[in-house]
Amino acid sequence: MMEDESGRLRLTGNFLKSTQLATGAIIAALGTENANGDFEVIDIKLPDLAPQLQRWGVNAPQNGVEIAGKEHGKIAFVSGLGITGTSSDTLALELLTDYLLGYTGFSGNDENSPSLGSSKISRLVIAGNSLGASVIGDVASTNSGDAAAKKAQPKKYGYDASAYNAAPITQLDDFLAEILPSIPVTLMPGEKDPANFSLPQQGIHRTMFPQARAYSAPPVRGDGKPEAGWFDSVTNPWDGDVEGWRLWGCSGQNVDDVLRYISIEGGDSSPDKDTDSDARMRIMEAMLRWRCGVPTAPDTICMFEQPNLTMNLLLTILSRVISIPI
């Protein structure tokens, strides 16, 4: 189905069998209308890959000129840590910490050494699902007794405080506090993290990290420009500058939702993890060529649409609300 401001047309033709499209993709279709009123497609054009900015294309360094021959740092990406607050997470987090901090036993000048590669990491980006939501619920239910007794307990302020399990977020805070003195971290929320459900997800509030929040940048006051801190809890999706490179990222809800409607060999229904990864890579490549990061929103992904209001209009609305007599 193709839609524009004039109406909708059903797309048909053998050409569509070899083309992967999703709801929300912007395309140009070439073809003719057949006797059934359908649009017979013979060719499709996509926006294709956007022009890429050169390094320091947005924010130039203070000296104005990049040092020739300077080695570029590396950016580490991790996702799906699934921290549950139990002892089963200890080994995985310790191995990740040892690698990021260069404790993997480097000796000599071997270019293939893991420690040599980790020594060049300039920032760690945690792209969502840092906590294991399903296990959090199981642990909370176990600690508070069976379901019947839990429902019988009185609720203060409309919720059951005994159902809250702080172990996962505490363990994540300990992990961040251990690596933050050496590596700056950007933390994105995911589908299973304590953030709002609809996109864009707001960053996990830094008050949930008593130790790691000491590395955050101070709050912006007035018309000041936000500063990049050593620990940044950002939104999902997120765009920013790291070492002069312009990045845009999402925690994966966009890819998961597209795979629910597009039949690609190796999708979610495939037990083979390698083919599943290939399918996700193909979807991400297609999104780059569509120039659309979350094509299925707001149809099948909850999205918060921000109204295009100026500050003057907001101040006018607030003044009117305040002036209403009670």
From TrEMBL:
Residue span(s) of domain DNA polymerase alpha/delta/epsilon subunit B: 75-302
Family label: Belongs to the DNA polymerase delta/II small subunit family.
GO cellular component: delta DNA polymerase complex
GO molecular function terms attached to this record: DNA binding
Name this protein carries in UniProt: DNA polymerase delta small subunit
Superkingdom: Eukaryota
InterPro entries hit by this protein: DNA_pol_a/d/e_bsu (IPR007185), DNA_pol_D_N (IPR040663), DNA_pol_delta/II_ssu (IPR024826)
PANTHER family given in the database record: DNA POLYMERASE DELTA SUBUNIT 2
UniProtKB keywords: DNA replication
DNA polymerase delta subunit OB-fold domain mapped to chain residues: 1-44
Transmembrane segments: none
GO process annotations (BP): DNA strand elongation involved in DNA replication
Organism the protein comes from: Penicillium sp
